[in-house]
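During the second half of the funding period, the structural biology subgroup turned its attention to how the target accommodates small molecules. The most pressing case was NDP, which had performed well in the primary screen but for which no bound structure existed. We therefore specified the complex as follows and requested a full 3D prediction, including the ligand pose.
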Amino acid sequence: GKVLVTGGSGFVATHVVHKLLRNGHHVTATVRSSKKGDQMIALVPENLRANFVYVIVEDVGLPGAFDKVIQENDFDGVIHTATPFDPKIQDPQATLKPAIEGTTNILEAAHKYGPNIRKMVITSSCASVISEEKGDWPGHVYTEADWNPITWEAANDGSWAHAYYGAKTYAEKSAWKFLVEQKPNFEVVTICPPYIFGPALQHLDSLDAINTSNAVLYSYINGSLKGKEIQKNGVHLWVDVRDCADAHVVAYEKQGLGSHRFVIAAGTFTNKEVADIFREKYPDRASNVPTKLAEGLTPEGEPVGGKYSVDNSKSRKLLGLEYLPIEQSIVDLMTSLKPLESKA
Ligand code: NDP
């Protein structure tokens, strides 16, 4: 098939694009500049390059952002990943607007100008699933039925995290609203992953450019948490980027799947577990890895009052997913960063 992937140069999207190409699809990726597009091409294995092109969409949040690329091609599917995911963005609207309007723009363009588009896969997030107010929520099992109750007011309170939670929640809600109201020809699948870890396949200029979620993981070994306490997890769930990419690709490929929301999570983890794995696997850098547990954690690094878990059975059943263990995610991230580490 011929598929459009938005935000193509990102961490998740790069895995999605490579997987699509390996599966024999023709891929058009949107990127924000020709520099990013050329960097993407350079990373595509040579034998797959013939099926890959990029187009420039500088800002997915601008009106009609996707009209031209959809008018000029005959896509049979879209995978929409582009969303700003950067804690350095201060203005809540700079996170909210591209996320929400980017989603409505792609839906509208596909509906108006993509007669043969049969599938719209949207990268949502567990940010639209998990409730911040409920905190650790001991005993709760998150599923596709859960929605983050964040209000528009809270999303605009100036905290980057709140803007991001709001962006993902309101963007996904607008997709489901669009489906009900506009009844497009295509099925809509939303993919809700929590923390995504694993090999960085995307172009990186330097170690400082690592994507937000891997940066959290990498902080356990690069010295930035040295001598500090291991904190309680803010989010208790995680998934490997390859499983997350598989979810997108299977959702795109699978005929007759129907419209669905999927929580794509391997399970729970603790920051202590992450620290232990880094210390064990990279003993020469063990002194960088924090050891002391913050208050409120059991010796195993669990919140003393307990925590929520997740039910990933829908993704296993309908998408056939099997989830990688976190140790593999960590080791493969480190392998992917080796060339940059040896330059640094
Ligand atoms: P990245 O930052 O690596 O990727 C985001 C991509 O979106 C980049 O290619 C970025 O381009 C592009 N982008 C951002 N804003 C705009 C805009 N206004 N117009 C056009 N393109 C834009 O992050 P991830 O790969 O981690 O995120 C991909 C998706 O996965 C996002 O939707 C994110 O919300 C979601 N997600 C990620 C999780 C994680 O832990 N990583 C967890 C759950 C969901 P550029 O780099 O050029 O700015």
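Two results from this model are relevant to the next phase. The mean pLDDT is 97. The chain has one domain: 2-199+238-265+308-323.
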